[in-house]
Specification:
- The termini are far apart.
- This protein has a domain of 61 residues.
- The relative contact order is 0.14.
- The protein is built from 4 helices and no strands.
- By secondary structure, it is mainly α.
- The longest helix has 18 residues.
Length: 92
């Protein structure tokens, strides 16, 4: 599990500790390895880190995090000038 990242190893340990049956945790670990092959270890590490920060110990959280589109930051300058701006004379 350490081959796909330290965050994934910590998440797997959390899943293993919370599982009623060890077989369920092993299946989740296999799923994490499969997600690493599909999405890459860097992106899986980000998803596992997000799960650890949210104090969530589930494979499903990581799977849904990876399926969601990446969040991009908005333009800090705002909308800027464009044709739809009404201007100060519109309200007077």
């Amino acid at each position: 599990m350490a081959a796909i990242g330290p965050a994934a190893a910590l998440l797997f340990a959390r899943i293993l500790a919370g599982a009623d049956y060890p077989e369920q945790a092993v299946r989740a670990g296999i799923g994490l390895i499969r997600l690493a092959a599909t999405h890459g270890t860097d992106r899986l590490g980000q998803a596992c880190q997000a799960a650890l920060e949210a104090k969530v110990g589930s494979y499903r959280y990581v799977q849904r995090w990876l399926a969601a589109p990446p969040v991009t930051s908005a333009d800090p300058a705002g909308a800027g000038e464009h044709a739809n701006l009404r201007g100060p004379s519109y309200y007077h």
